[in-house]
Amino acid sequence: MNVSIVVCTYTLDMYEHFREAADSVLAQTHDDVELVVVVDGTPEVYERVVDDYGDRDDAVIACNDENMGLLVSRNRGAEIASGDVVAFIDDDAIADEEWVERLVRAYEEKDAIAAGGKMTPEWIAGKPSFLPEEFYWLIGVTHRGFADGPGEVRNTFGSNISFRADVFAELGGFDVDIGGRKGDKNLQGGETELCARMRERYGRGVWYDPEAEVAHKVFEYRTEFRWLVDRAFWQGYSKRAMESMLTESTDEETNFAGRLLTEFVPSRLYSLLIEPSKRGLLKLIALMIFTSLVGAGYLYGTTRYSGTTVHVESETDEPTYQVLWLRPSRGDNISVRRQRIAEELATHGVEVDICDVTGTDVIGATRKAVVGDYDAIFGNVRMGLYIGYPLARLLRKPFVGTVSDPISDINDLPQPLFNLLRRYEWFVLAHADACSFTYQATYEEARRRGIKGRKLPNAVNYDQFADPDPDAVECARKLLEKDSVDLNKPVAIYVGGLTESTYKMSTIVTAAEQRLDWEFVFVGEGEQREMVAEAAREHPNVHYLGAFEYDLMPGFLAHADIGFCFKDAEQPLKVMEYGAAGVATIAQPGNLQTRLNDDEAVFIEPDPDVIAETLANLAANPVERERLAHNLQRHAENVSWKAVGEEFYEILEEVVA
């Protein structure tokens, strides 16, 4: 079987690399190989090719009259080739000596109509430590998850693919408008479109042999993060274009995306937890960023290839600014700080879209970032900060980092992993256009690091809690009574995220077993939801009501006597809400004592016996309970979201200007 191998080249700068590619073709163990060289409109390159290979009987050389692009050149090479099979390799690649032999075996033994193999990396300037193997396709190398072994695939890489000559001719060759001069210059993937047409016509794909190897030279510029970011975005864009042209063209990408989210990301995360390393963390972060950017490119492609425009919803007719605020995914009724600030910004005509970014939520957030006409991107710790910064830089938007929780919140992670995340977080904050810090300790550390930012504490809509809407109070009463809460007994309440490491849910539940004279009410959502719900089923004085709209929280607190907050933080949001509602608070000693004194809250260790004893004392001394509630309420009266919102508006004006 005669095999013609087409190599296209066009610049003298690549000539020595071209010679290596051509020589590797001529050094094949298969003895019936034809080298076909197409020079794309560069006479001086053509002259050198003729000098080096013109006298060979197994070489055919042609030159385009002008630069026509890779796909036009490949089609011309196939037209002048004489082989039964036409194969393609790039001028920056080197074929293994048994490459053609393996391809021929696929045609003879598998009756293939097209065959290809594995692309391996040849690192010219060293392998980048951050690049995950799942995204090697960005550099033209076969990636993890491409195929489990030999078998039929939709297509292989354009630098390691071949076709029966008659099949290639019947298909009309490559569509020259894919990345060609007449089409969209940002489109990539001519072999994808061709092989999708082949599958539609013949019902067959490309036979993949992982032992048919071609090494692809990975030059230094291809290992730079900025280049890879750009590449990822436009690859996603191209995939959307392919999908619009041929509906079956993205089946394999869909399958790969599924494995990425359900297999590869969890696998890398598990490995990182078992054996923390800087390399592992960088690869995991890069994996998430590249996934987001491919999705962003795909969604951007919908604006051109679907004929539709995505509009961002606005609360005002003519907003002065539009902001995308990225935050961790914690549930619709958790993380209310952003909502309160957004409400205050709205009074200045600022439209704020608040988007979750954890896990698959990042896709929707990226879509908004790319398609929406935003003036700035805000990113809140942790994932909002980690994803928002590179996304803002890619889109050339101002970035504001907001730190509402201290880094110590994740210090239960393995120490090496915690240290790596801490370093990345400070790197982002140091390079952001502006920063805000909720906690004094974090703000002071930022100043020590030379990072400028504003100290903007948690606050409360005082009137909303101090004088709650009667409808909210009545609605909460009905919900409490429906769950058999005895409102004639004192009520201890917890409102917020149900997490063990931060808020000690199991400790409160254990204390409830000792204080049957108290009703324990939990309102919120989180990882400990099932544990709390199970306790509610087992103990008559424990009640888990679920998660509700924020506007209903003042109604629940109106029926409470004590509020719990066992988060060792300087100013947890819920403490101010408890205070404004006139609810005495039991809190954990530590950072909160820098803001409140013993006349404003009861500070005890989060121990079930201590909690039970404290509740007994407060039940027996209602005057003391009222005194604590009154003092905390006076403190809460002095912190407002209006003041915080004003400063955020100033930040926005500064970074946009």
TrEMBL record:
A Pfam family cross-referenced in the UniProt record is Glyco_trans_1_4
What region holds the Glycosyltransferase 2-like domain? 4-171
What InterPro entries does the record point to? GDP_glucuronosyltransferase, Glyco_trans_2-like, Nucleotide-diphossugar_trans
Signal peptide range: none
- Keyword check for DNA damage: no
Tell me which UniProt keywords the record has, alphabetically: Transferase
Has UniProt tagged this entry with the keyword Transferase?
yes
Q: Name one GO molecular function term.
A: transferase activity
Q: Which PANTHER family match?
A: RHAMNOSYLTRANSFERASE WBBL
The protein's name in its UniProt record: Glycosyl transferases group 1
Organism, as annotated: Halorubrum xinjiangense
Q: What is the lineage of its organism?
A: Archaea, Methanobacteriati, Methanobacteriota, Stenosarchaea group, Halobacteria
